[in-house]
Amino acid sequence: MNYGVALFPSKPLQDLANSYRMRYDPHYTLIPPHVTLKEPFELEEQELPSVVKRVREIAKGVDPFPLEVYKVDTFYPVSNTLFFKIREHSALTELYEQLHTSPFKRNEKYSFVPHLTIGQNLSYDELSDNLGRLKMKQIQHEEIVDRIQLLYQLDNGSWTVYETFKLGKEE
Amino acid sequence: MNYGVALFPSKPLQDLANSYRMRYDPHYTLIPPHVTLKEPFELEEQELPSVVKRVREIAKGVDPFPLEVYKVDTFYPVSNTLFFKIREHSALTELYEQLHTSPFKRNEKYSFVPHLTIGQNLSYDELSDNLGRLKMKQIQHEEIVDRIQLLYQLDNGSWTVYETFKLGKEE
């Protein structure tokens, strides 16, 4: 079964992201707008409890932090993806690092670029037609993130939340 | 903002439900297959913490329980909805009752019929064409439910999980 770890921003930021995803992201209906903290990884059912425990520890070890979105950018030419760029923050980096440290596999393929995807699998023409205009857009939003989520993937490609983990120590 | 409380069954039951929802449920892409415990209700942001606290208490007060699905049925003529009928269970009824007891509003409109929707807003012809065949289907599935979820609705009608609540006392 495929699992992943993500954070869902607030409704206003999700609504804003969806206004783009609707047109540019074929995953629009598969999962709400999110910041991926750990790409899909395979897990046997018997491994789940120890992974849940580890994600809970990681979440407890990182305090709630400000998430700041400040522009539209692309991974082109690596991929034809459009995203809201997220300001680097030590807490966000720490979450990502911990989720890619033993017992989890490292991500050898990419280094962490905090982002919220608003378009993907675009043709070169779609990307270049829109990129200039979108890069000019004034995007400025800041909010506090206080939770992350572990999700699993259904056969139709959509994602269901398995568990929420609050950041920082329990009240 | 609209909130709701639901339980998501296991992946196998969700995949089975989606094989029907794909054809019969226009909400297919808005939310994964679920059992509604509390229909959408409006909440101001400042009311959220006390509601979260109350849902957490309710979840703690009910132990994990078996969820049994045993046939396809319909709410016709009240509504043209198709669903997997869920065997009544005191724990499930208790969750529903608590979520409709002060500070929450009672549901004056319907009494609780535990179900997992697989089709809705069907025309009379669609419903009657398929109902006989679906009612004959051998549906038999049982699993343990150990968590419920509080969700909120985005502007596009889709739902994001806000928080997971484990049933019973914390380990």
How do the helices and strands line up, and which of them pair or pack?
The structure is a homodimer of 171-residue chains.
Chain A: E1 2-7, H1 11-24, E2 35-42, H2 48-60, E3 65-74, E4 82-86, H3 90-98, E5 115-119, H4 124-136, E6 141-145, E7 147-153, E8 159-166
Antiparallel strand pairs in A: 1-2, 1-7, 3-4, 3-6, 4-5, 7-8
Describe the model:
- The structure is a homodimer of 171-residue chains.
- In chain A, the strands form two sheets. A four-stranded antiparallel β-sheet of chain A has the order 2-1-7-8. A four-stranded antiparallel β-sheet of chain A has the order 5-4-3-6.
- Chain A has helices at residues 11-24, 48-60, 90-98, 124-136; strands at 2-7, 35-42, 65-74, 82-86, 115-119, 141-145, 147-153, 159-166.
- By secondary structure, chain A is an alpha+beta fold.
- Chain A is 29% helix and 32% strand.
- Chains A and B meet through helix 1, strand 7 and strand 8 of A and helix 1, strand 7 and strand 8 of B.
Task: Assign the structural class of chain A, choosing from mainly alpha, mainly beta, alpha/beta, alpha+beta, or little secondary structure.
Answer: alpha+beta
Q: Could you list the spans of chain A in which at least 5 consecutive residues all have pLDDT below 50?
A: none
Query: What's the alpha carbon Rg of chain A, rounded to whole Å?
Result: 16 Å
The domain tally of chain A reads 1
CATH fold field value of chain A: Cyclic Phosphodiesterase, Chain: A
Order of helices and strands of chain A, N to C?
A: EHEHEEHEHEEE
Strand order of the largest sheet of chain A: 2-1-7-8
User: So what's the oligomer here?
Assistant: homodimer
Gap between N and C termini of chain A? 33 Å
